[in-house]
């Protein structure tokens, strides 16, 4: 369901969605708007299917079935919206062209561990991933989509259990990394020079984090 927030904010509860999109056979866990095209929404469900919608007409534009053999952990659009990358339970990171419906690049076993991983596109087209090593240590990695054989940079953080969730600010090229159950958020700057991933600082609190969200800058004063 897609809801429209009134221009002046909520004054009463919303009861009717603007549109209802039906196409997945199982629960939907991921929704993300296209970065440049109006009214284009991507959804990924527990049926391992990615759908791309025209929200204005409730039309299914693309159905990407058969590209993922297991649960999709994360989806991230490239900055121009021509491609998106996914992290899957089969430990692969895939770069997908939605118009052709094909995988244009793939890295198997991007992180060796069995726990969930995440992948996000950066502004320059590189991919930043979080995951676990074979010894269950939490990792960060940076990948060049032109050559996914080896990561450009790889760092091991600690041996906590919570999956690391990356949030990216393209204006500063800083990635904020946090995890469920953690009481800290780490900041890393991504640069063109080795070692590419530079630790900046850590924010700590007394309470463990239960969930995280990213507010668009237009929502800040």
UniProtKB/TrEMBL annotation:
Gene Ontology biological process: actin filament organization; cell migration
Protein origin, superkingdom: Eukaryota
A GO term, aspect molecular function: actin filament binding
InterPro entries: Coronin (IPR015505), WD40/YVTN_repeat-like_dom_sf (IPR015943), WD40_repeat_CS (IPR019775), WD40_repeat_dom_sf (IPR036322), WD40_rpt (IPR001680)
Main localization (coarse): cytoplasm
This protein's UniProt keywords: Actin-binding, Coiled coil, Cytoplasm, Cytoskeleton, Phosphoprotein, Repeat, WD repeat
Gene Ontology cellular component list: cytoskeleton
Localization per Swiss-Prot or TrEMBL: Cytoplasm, Cytoskeleton
PROSITE patterns documented for this protein: WD_REPEATS_1, WD_REPEATS_2, WD_REPEATS_REGION
Pfam families: WD40
Similarity field: Belongs to the WD repeat coronin family.
Protein name: Coronin
Taxonomic source organism: Buphagus erythrorhynchus
Gene: Coro1b
């Amino acid at each position: 369901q897609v809801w429209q927030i009134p221009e002046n904010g909520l004054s009463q509860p919303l009861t009717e969605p603007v549109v209802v999109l039906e196409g997945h056979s199982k629960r939907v866990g991921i929704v993300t708007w296209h970065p440049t095209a109006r009214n284009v929404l991507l959804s990924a469900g527990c049926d391992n299917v990615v759908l791309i919608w025209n929200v204005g007409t409730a039309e299914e534009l693309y159905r990407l079935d058969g590209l993922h053999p297991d649960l999709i952990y994360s989806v991230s659009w490239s900055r121009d919206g021509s491609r998106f990358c996914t992290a899957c339970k089969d430990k692969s990171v895939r770069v997908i062209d939605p118009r052709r419906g094909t995988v244009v690049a793939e890295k198997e076993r991007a992180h060796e561990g069995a726990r969930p991983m995440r992948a996000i596109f950066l502004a320059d087209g590189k991919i930043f991933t979080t995951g676990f090593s074979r010894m269950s240590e939490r990792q960060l990695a940076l990948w060049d989509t032109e050559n996914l054989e080896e990561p450009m940079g790889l760092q091991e953080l600690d041996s906590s259990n919570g999956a690391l969730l990356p949030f990216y600010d393209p204006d500063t090229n800083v990635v904020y990394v946090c995890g469920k159950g953690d009481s800290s958020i780490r900041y890393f700057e991504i640069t063109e020079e080795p070692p590419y991933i530079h630790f900046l600082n850590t924010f700590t609190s007394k309470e463990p984090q239960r969930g995280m969200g990213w507010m668009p800058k237009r929502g800040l004063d």
